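Here is one chain, start to finish.
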Amino acid sequence: MGLLDGKVALVTGSTSGIGAASALLFAKEGAQVVLTGRRVEDGEALVAEIKTVGGDAFFVQADLNVIESIPEVVAAVVERYGRLDVAFNSAGTATGGPLATMTEAEWDRVNDTNLKSVYFCLKAQAEQMQAQGGGGSIVLNGSVLANIAFPGTTIYSASKGGITAMARAAAVELGPLGIRVNSINPSITRTPMTESMISANEDGTETHPFAPAGSIPLGRLAEPEEIANAALFLLSDRASYINGHALVVDGGQSVM
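Its structure:
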């Protein structure tokens, strides 16, 4: 039996990277999975891949920065599968640079995606779970940069620190309804969004400006599947008494 057998799962930002790896894993673990993102071709390709491994999924195109589209995504989930049991809010973006060079436009772009849209996803998902009679699990995708910092991370760190705080507050509010809310804080993960900034060290290991050589005790960057496994655990009934927790998945980077 899979960890999500019989559950309906929604994964945002599921056309690439951590979201795509999570959607595929959740389907393998027995969930009926709804994918959402902006790129139709990538979304439909992942649906086809899920179906080849015996899973059940469909794709809803949406730009979650258009807040009005978020309840429509949840409504599409319910129309197709009748309910929503678990949700992984994986969609996100990044920026970096010296504090003095950052602009209001960059602040708005990052926080609209990483914080504002996630809040309204959480809101719509929780409302649906409550309408079903309560119960459910929601995971927000944060970052280890909510725990540690590097020069040039001010805006991104602020958005991901907000995710951790949001999950804690929502866990307190929604816990009495049986709805658990947690976050995960990954270190740099090898995805299409990060690969352009990943380079090789002389010893063959990989480095990134926010995961420099020697900063990760395990000596390597994370793979999307490793973050997906953390989200799977928190969403599953095996984490039934974990609520309001920020699970750090960073290879030990934050303890250096």
